[in-house]
Every structure is written in C-alpha cells, then in structure tokens.
Design goal:
6 strands; four-stranded mixed beta sheet; 2 helices; alpha+beta; 16% helix; two-stranded antiparallel sheet
C-alpha cells in the first residue's frame, strides 16, 4: 500500500464533487487554527459549512475526516503538493461574524 492509499484510509468519506464544485484556495486561521476556507469564487465559509458543502459535492479535492467529535476537511492525495490544504496561503476573513 502506498502513501496515497494510506492517507485515503484516514478519510471517513470522499464525496463525489459536482461538475461545478468550488476548490479551496486559502485558509482562514485564528490563533493558528483553521476556522474557515476561502473558495475559488473568493467567498469565505466557516469550517463546518465547508464540511457540509463538501458532503453535498460542492467542494472538490477534499475528503472528510474526524478528530473526536469534530469533522474537518483533508486534501485527497493526488500527487501534487501545491493543492494540499496545509500548503495553501492564510487569508483574512473579509467580514467578522
């Protein structure tokens, strides 16, 4: 089993993305923790909203994993490091909730 397959096994779910699904292009962080994501249409969504969108096929290139009772998004290994969530730039939320 290669590294890609091993990582895929850590995912609870790999939703099928719709043809018009957005991609994550930036991470919104507060105190070093990811609290949301910037999508390819430049919108900003909260972490749980992004998980729900991914489950509905609205975000491509991610799978869903969990730590304790918290679900979160992980990159689906595709051989490219550039689009891994951990390598994306941090962005500031344009509006504070």
């Amino acid at each position: 089993m290669d590294g890609k397959e091993l990582v895929k096994q850590t995912l609870d779910q790999i939703p099928q993305a719709n043809s018009n699904a957005k991609r994550i292009i930036g991470l919104v962080k507060e105190g070093g923790r990811i609290t949301g994501y910037q999508l390819s249409d430049n919108s900003i969504v909260e972490k749980q909203q992004a998980v729900n969108m991914a489950k509905q096929g609205q975000i491509a290139g991610v799978g869903i994993a969990h730590r304790g009772d918290t679900e979160y998004l992980k990159s689906i290994p595709d051989g490219s490091e550039n689009n891994n969530l951990g390598n994306l730039p941090s962005v500031s939320p344009s509006t504070q909730a």
